[in-house]
Amino acid sequence: MERTGPIRPVLAALTATLLALPGVAALSSAARAADADLAKNGGFEAGLDGWACSSGTTVNSPVHSGSSALQATPAGSDYAQCAQTVTVRPDAQYTLSGYVRGAYVYLGTSGTGTTDVSTWTQSAPDWQRLTTTFRTGPSTTKVTIYTHGWYGTGAYGADDVSLTGPGVEVGQPPATPAGLKAGTITSSSVTLSWTAVTGATGYALYRDGVKVQTASGTSATVSGLAPSTAYGFQVAAVNEAGESARSGPLNVTTTAGSSPDLPAHALVGYLHASFANGAGYTRLADVPDSWDVIDLAFGEPTSVTSGDIRFTRCPVTECPNVESDADFKAAIRAKQAAGKKVLISIGGQNGQVQLTTTAARDAFVSSVSSIIDTYGLDGLDIDFEGHSLLLNADDTDFRNPKTPVIVNLISALKTLKAKYGARFVLTMAPETFFVQMGYQYYGTGKWGGQDPRCGAYLPVIHALRDDLTLLHVQDYNSGPIMGLDHQYHSMGGADFHIAMTDMLLTGFPVAGDPENVFPPLRPDQVAIGMPASVNAGNGYISPTEVTKTLDCLTKRTNCGSYPTHGTWPTLRGLMTWSVNWDRYSGGEFRKTFDGYFG
């Protein structure tokens, strides 16, 4: 019998009564919001947009749906994690799911405020759905979702990652910032400030229409600029709803500056001045004119933590042809008269220096000054290796370092630069592990367990970028390093040098964090470090490969598989270990340089 007629009016009346009760309408709204997918670009259709990946790329096959999917390969100590931070509601239930394939693939969350969860599969030869649920804590507003593989396994794939649960009302983007003005202006940087905007969670800075960095407060310094160059700056306010309109442009021209008088393209070489090895001792007066910067190797500390640096010339018993102190000083003056720069290099393989205290810092400044003054040198090269530089576990921002050995070194170098003036030559020769490795890892990492030396030179380089004459990273004795193309690059050819140098000239997110970008250096601040011969160190490349490297970076021709992000005809030049080894091998390295740059 038909009984629905009488019941429908009763149900309608009951529903109306319930919706009139306090809180019921809100529950209904929340239920509708629970259907929202909060993950951004979960299908990877927009490449890696929204994801911070230690390695990986998007591929068109295999995919679970759509046209793209993530593919990433764990390597070494990297398990190829991709993560994104999502805004959520406190005390709410969420479901994380996604499709994966490969061996040992994980899908999980962190920062939930309750119990972080993950799920995984040991083997998925084809697409397999993983899913897990969690509840946010009473004050949790953001969680991180991630997927990764595992050490020593092959490539994995991920696609259609979703986080479903109550959405968050994001409101409207903030108002446009006002009051943009310039503070300190140097030859390579501009300090900007603006008025705070209500409701803004951060700010985006634009240079000539291109976003160059973000800021959490109302001021920032934009570095990596060229001397005597006009730039247009704008700022926009940012919140969860998006980005405001940009402010009107502020036009600023950098100063001309006063820098050491180096040739447009310079050749830098280390001279074994305090020891002899298989290459033999070379008198300073016998160093060919090709060398524009000569680094005297090495000044070393009396103890690791003393900061007291001593430069002891090679004894006659070890170097029978060593010149006298008087002849050595005369050779320095003759090189300087010919336009060359002679520096003292501190550190080296055996000279570990840790400025753990302010007393060590002050001893470093005093003792290095004494060496410079005694020999009338043009400046200082920092060649800290081994365990000289490392980051404490809570030191996670290269822009604001806290570790004493980092902070004290920065302070010491700034003091020396201020003491000797603008023509003081300051160079650095870090290993790739301390610089480019910072693209993947920084210090011990968010979850600990990483080498605290990873990327440890970055805060020093960044703090001194306006004082730094040259950075010549040692592109030798290096393991494989991931480039900006998310591929690992190994020594032995032009490709390695191109990828490593491109990172310095393009800038890169530190530890894959797009909000923590190491800005590019000026090309005139960069030289490429290479071994002079097969005897000098691992990573030697032939003159043909040296030429390919320079062609690609300065002309964007003769490039290999690595896609560079620019062309830099003002790249400063090359550095080598060493003058002695080049002489031993018949001058091949300097002849290649001279032949290329004329």
Automatic annotation (TrEMBL):
Residue stretches making up the Fibronectin type-III domain: 176-257
EC number: 3.2.1.14
Keywords linked to the UniProt accession: Carbohydrate metabolism, Glycosidase, Hydrolase, Polysaccharide degradation, Signal
UniProt cross-references to InterPro entries, sorted A to Z: CenC_carb-bd, Chitinase_II/V-like_cat, FN3_dom, FN3_sf, Galactose-bd-like_sf, GH, Glyco_hydro18_cat, Glyco_hydro_18_chit_AS
GH18 domain boundaries: 265-598
Similarity comment: family membership: Belongs to the glycosyl hydrolase 18 family. Chitinase class II subfamily.
Name under which the protein is recorded: chitinase
Organism (species): Streptomyces sviceus (strain ATCC 29083 / DSM 924 / JCM 4929 / NBRC 13980 / NCIMB 11184 / NRRL 5439 / UC 5370)
